[in-house]
Amino acid sequence: MAATLNIDKLDLQIINEMMRNAEISYADLGKKLFVSGGTIHVRMKKLHEMGVVKGTKLQVDLKMIGYDVIAFIGIYLEKSSLYDTVAKELKKIPEITRINYTTGNYSIFAEVVCKDIEQLRRVLHDELQKVKGIERTETIISLEEEFTRSINVAPAD
């Protein structure tokens, strides 16, 4: 895939460093990788245009601002061919932060972030139950998130 998109070692190093710290300036990143800040800027622009880089995200400790419930919902579909339709409807539910089309028991595995159990109940009962094509769901509540991280994409030296 990398060859098809014309991604080289420097591109992978830039991606890797930016995943670790998206706040680093292009000038500082250039110094770290022994190229100019302008080169970093051009490479980042190319990576955005190719769709490899899709913006930047602010990482927030959601519990500190009142979002105390993270749950995972295994969704069984009536037919797997309904995935696209159901996924489109799930995108409309703001508490759902991620969905994955999966193998195994569930057709879809969704992550949901809520302020409290009452909000989760509302999402499950009032929102998900109305989505046509969902046969049933199983909800798993996260008790604690130990860590989240990106993978290392930089090539070995």
3D architecture notes:
It holds the Pfam family HTH_24. Keywords: DNA-binding, Transcription, Transcription regulation. Residues 7-68 form the HTH asnC-type domain. This is Lrp/AsnC ligand binding domain-containing protein. The protein starts with 8 loop residues before the first helix and ends in a 15-residue tail after the last strand. The protein is elongated. The mean pLDDT is 92. α2 (26-33) packs across α3. It has two domains: 9-50, Winged helix-like DNA-binding domain superfamily/Winged helix DNA-binding domain (Arc Repressor Mutant, subunit A), CATH 1.10.10; 62-142, Alpha-Beta Plaits (2-Layer Sandwich). Helices cover 34% and strands 20% of the residues. The protein has 157 residues and is of the alpha+beta class. The chain has five helices and four strands. It has a four-stranded antiparallel sheet with strand order 2-3-1-4.
Structure described in brief:
By secondary structure, the protein is of the alpha+beta class.
CATH superfamily of the largest domain: Lrp/AsnC effector binding domain/regulation of amino acid metabolism (RAM) domain
What is the percent of helical residues? 25-40%
Q: What percentage of the residues does DSSP assign to strands (E)?
A: 15-25%
Q: In one word, what is the shape? A: elongated
Q: Any idea how many domains?
A: 2
pLDDT averaged residue by residue: 92
Uncertain runs are none
**Would you count the extended β strands for me?**
4
Write down the Rg.
20 Å
Architecture (CATH level 2) name of the largest domain: 2-Layer Sandwich
Strand order of the largest sheet: 2-3-1-4
Distance between the termini: 20 Å
Helices, by number, come to 5
Order of helices and strands: HHHEHEEHE
Based on helices, strands and strand pairing, what is the structural class?
alpha+beta
Q: Sheet with the most strands? A: 4 strands, antiparallel
Look at the structure and give the CATH class of the largest domain.
Answer: Alpha Beta
CATH topology of the largest domain: Alpha-Beta Plaits
Protein name: Lrp/AsnC ligand binding domain-containing protein
Pfam family, one: AsnC_trans_reg
Domain HTH asnC-type: 7-68
InterPro entries: AsnC-type_HTH_dom (IPR000485), Dimeric_a/b-barrel (IPR011008), Tscrpt_reg_AsnC-like (IPR019888), Tscrpt_reg_AsnC/Lrp_C (IPR019887), WH-like_DNA-bd_sf (IPR036388), WH_DNA-bd_sf (IPR036390)
